[in-house]
Design brief:
- The chain has 405 residues and is an alpha/beta fold.
- The chain has 17 helices and twelve strands.
- The chain is globular.
- Bound molecules: flavin mononucleotide (FMN).
- Flavin mononucleotide binds next to helix 4 and helix 16.
Length: 405
């Protein structure tokens, strides 16, 4: 058996190296090769997963160290990364029996858009680092599983192609720079492509200290110039589809001078709704609403922004209170299970985004991996709703949870 597998590997290697093969056939051969090389302690196909962490293990095995480091990283000693997960332990469920939950609906509405579920795909940049099909695989999975997708402006694929693959407009996330013409160019392009919502990320304005990323990167001795050029930000952006035509430089990403009037600038050139992503305090939530934000998005960037040591689920209640129903509240950072998602909905979130969880699926198995992650999270959420006696997203309330301490 082992001999047969070895010969098969040799053959696939030969096929993959043959210049006679088309690119897609070659990728296919490589993917099959990857699958056959997975050690026994890892799942070899998405259907075998018990929870999303099974995809994490495969992703870690498959990705080159620097790419895994990019995915996994936190800041400083990973204080916020850990706090994000720990926060879920402090909230418990209050199951209620004998409620008819034979029919459960996950449908909801967000900024006037009808959604099949409140689970959203967070913007994650440079997805080619995780799979050759990158954001297109994510979009196809989002389409198959009917989820809202938010596209990063550091996407590996142009927004037009991603929208075509998704089959409907995605939301477009923007990292501001000090070069307004670059922002304007992207806003106009996103709107022309069909995007109706812009997600402005405001939590990296003063940089972030990504120690874990550095630790993985220094163990990676591959020649990465084909994708990363000379490793300068300028070279990276030159190869990035959404920055074509921009003159932005590394220094321009220092947006420490940015204030709330940036929303007004966006409104001057775009009619897209504006979601402000990266809010964690009641003060900022109030300012965002006052500045005309159409939704507030609680996030600490998955523990990749500052080492606050404050979990996103812990910041959610004060933001919900400050917003007081005036606009929707979204949240992400650390969500891995249906129970996690349920807890945020019970604390008042209108939608919950996932980042690493779906990227683990992408890195592990491409589109089918992302699909399975989404399918599992919905099934888990439905199960929790059944256990606590809530038949719709609207019915989920503070009554269904308790807080320790
Ligand atoms: C590899 C990676 C890349 C990311 N890129 C972006 C990005 O381009 N824009 C953005 O607003 N957030 C980005 N984020 C943050 C996510 O949108 C989201 O806030 C975070 O992943 C949520 O935490 P989770 O990964 O624990 O689910 C990225 C996160 C990861 C893991």
């Amino acid at each position: 058996m082992a001999k047969l597998q070895a010969r098969r590997r040799e053959f696939l290697k030969f096929l993959a190296a043959s210049p006679l093969l088309t690119v897609s056939a070659r990728l296919l051969a490589e993917e099959t090769l990857e699958t056959s090389e997975l050690p026994d302690y890892l799942i070899s196909k998405p259907e075998d997963a018990l929870d999303v962490f099974d995809f994490h293990s495969v992703a870690k095995h498959r990705l080159p160290p620097a790419h895994y480091g990019y995915l996994a990283t936190g800041t400083d000693g990973n204080e916020t990364l850990s706090a994000n997960r720990r926060a879920f332990e402090n909230v418990y469920l209050r199951p209620m029996r004998m409620v008819d939950t034979s029919e459960i609906s996950l449908k909801t509405t967000l900024l006037g858009q009808e959604l099949e579920s409140p689970i959203v795909l967070a913007p994650v940049g440079s997805q080619r680092a995780f799979h050759a099909d990158a954001e297109l695989a994510t979009a196809r999975a989002a389409r198959a599983q009917q989820h809202l997708q938010i596209l990063s402006n550091v996407t590996s694929n142009p927004i037009e192609d991603v929208i075509a693959a998704r089959g409907e407009p995605v939301w477009f996330q923007l990292y501001p720079t000090t070069q307004w013409p670059t922002a304007r160019m992207m806003l106009e392009r996103a709107q022309a492509a069909g995007a109706r919502v812009i997600v402005l990320t405001v939590d990296l304005n003063s940089g972030s200290n990504r120690v874990l990323l550095g630790q993985y990167t220094r163990t990676d001795d591959r020649d990465c110039s084909a994708c990363h050029g000379d490793h300068s930000v300028e070279d990276f952006l030159r190869m990035n589809p959404m920055y074509q035509g921009s003159r932005v430089t590394f220094a321009d990403f220092d947006t420490s001078g940015m204030t709330w009037d940036y929303l007004e600038r966006i409104r001057e050139v775009s009619s897209m709704k504006i979601v402000v992503k990266g809010i964690v305090t009641r003060e900022d939530a109030a300012s965002a609403v006052a500045a005309g934000a159409d939704a507030v998005y609680v996030s600490n960037h998955g523990g990749r922004a500052e080492a606050s040591g404050w979990g996103a689920l812990e910041s959610l209640p004060e933001v919900v209170e400050a917003v007081n129903g005036r606009v929707p509240v979204m949240v992400d950072s650390g969500f891995r299970r249906g129970t996690d998602i349920f807890k945020a909905l019970a604390l008042g979130a209108d939608a919950v985004s996932i980042g690493r969880a779906y990227i683990w699926g992408l890195a592990a198995f491409g589109q089918p991996g992302v699909e399975k992650v989404l399918e599992m999270l919905k099934a888990e959420l439905r199960m929790v709703m059944g256990q606590v006696g809530a038949t719709s997203v609207d019915e989920i309330s503070a009554m269904h949870i308790g807080t320790r301490g």
